[in-house]
Amino acid sequence: MNYSVIDFISLLGSVCLFLYGMKVMSEGLQKVAGDRLRNILGIMTRNRVTGVLTGILITALIQSSSASTVMVVSFVNAGLMSLAQAMAVIFGANVGTTATTWIISAFSFEVNISDYSILLLAVGVPMMFMKKSTYKSMGEFLVGFCFLFMGLDLISTYVPNLQENPEMLQFMTRYTTLGVGSVLIFFALGIVFTMIAQSSAATFAITLIMCSQGWISFLLGCAIILGGNIGTTITPVLASLSGNLAAKRTAMGHVLFNVIGSLVVLCVFHPFVELVADITKACDGINPLSISEAQEAGMRGTTLLDAKGGMTARAQSCVAFGLAMFPTVFNAINLLIMIWFTKLYVKAVCWIMPTRHKEDDEEFVLKYIGRGLLSASELNITQAQKEILLYGQRVERMIGMARKMIHLDAKDEEYQPTFDRLEKYEEISDRMEMEIGTFLNQVAEGRLSPEGKMRVAGMLRIVSEIESIADGCYNVAKTMNRKNQIHVEFNDSVLREIDRMYELVSGAMTNVLGLLEELETPENSRIVAAYNKEREINNLRNKLRDGNIFNINNKEYNYQEGIFFMDLIGEAEKLGDYMLNVVEGVKHQFKTLPSMEK
What we know:
This protein has 598 residues and is mainly α. It has helices at 5-33, 35-43, 48-62, 65-77, 83-96, 98-109, 117-128, 133-158, 166-176, 180-197, 200-212, 218-231, 234-240, 245-267, 269-284, 288-297, 313-338, 342-352, 377-406, 415-444, 450-485, 492-517, 524-553, 559-588.
């Protein structure tokens, strides 16, 4: 045996180059699409037919069913897509992923694309250094495309030559002649390998090499690919682990769709493979099953086998075509059957994963983001946007609690529970800021477009300022505690002025929440309104500060009452400043948004 350890390590390196090329190509296309990808998903999933077409389109575009299904899980987790819409997209994604297999199949033997890889790199690498982000992303796509096929070519080079190493063929023969047992073994192998690689395309590429080298028959190659159809569900499952119930249901729906379809085909495996072989013969002129028969019969020197017993280029092309046809036929039939039972399918998923308890708004829980996979960083931005809105809504409730405390007496039975609730909300606010900030930093470490990086920077500033608003509300509660400890009472006129100020603050916060709801497309009128409201708060603060000195001098109330009065007014003015800073964070997301003078 002349197959060395170095050859084996080189084979592993070739597989790694292939996987890296797939990753770079997919991420490059995602960055080119950017926000358009999110908009397409939002618009084109209104019914199951358009949802399926969207799944096919997006998956064919980004060349990864794992990425598209993770994206769908993220959208459901963020509340941007219903479970029924998500199922339709996932159905389509399973068909769209066959585009990758066809690309690999078409270029593997008909055209040796690796011969042109250096030429493509000469185009792609300079594009990565251009200023325009679209050109950079297209350059990444070309480089990834080159690496993918260079890796595929190197895999073929370093795969052991079975004619020169017959003992390896003998080892494989132990598992290829067990009939149904062989099908089950290679079916399981497809599941395991795809789970490890997290790419059904990688499984397809390896299977293609194994079949073309004569390691396994076309039949067993189909078994591996069928297993890979189940293995590919591991990525969205991992992505959903830290998501909400809807995200977990979406991942479960993907698992069920692939598992049910695969097991049904496994039950009629031989007839189904024969159907695919007949379709291949009708399209390509050769039945791929006949190649295995020719190998078993030792028919060398024919159009199928060369003089050494290896496959001819024509036979390899036929096997590649048949292996690409297998998942296409399988997923198309699965889709055409399951699309009519989408509603029933959703009910089944909800029955398997029922709602166990109602989420307590008073407990710390991130509803839209988690620590799952971040394989599609551009798309994780949407999750953060929804979580930031929820964060703002929590803090708005703190403003209401702070206003309530101002009117409560220390002896009132609601006083201490309200203070405790504000304190708990402030702790939740601190933890939310940390978790959202950590999530955004992880997103920023991914491969983002310049626009995506601007958005993340803006959102980090927004999160920090929202936390400052929460701190300000808690400071109001602590000020009221100090006031009550020394038994200072506000008269009615002071309470009316405080109410005026906090009414303005509440209005400003409502406007801020409106901006957070439309974080991707903020209305300019709301930004103008934010500046106007902040001016109103400043003007009223100045007026009350001057009036406070006058009232103390004229004995309208004592000095201590005036001090606490201005402390509360000062906190309100700071809240207005923090809210304006949130607006500045919203503006920071967009270079093209016109800057406005304060």
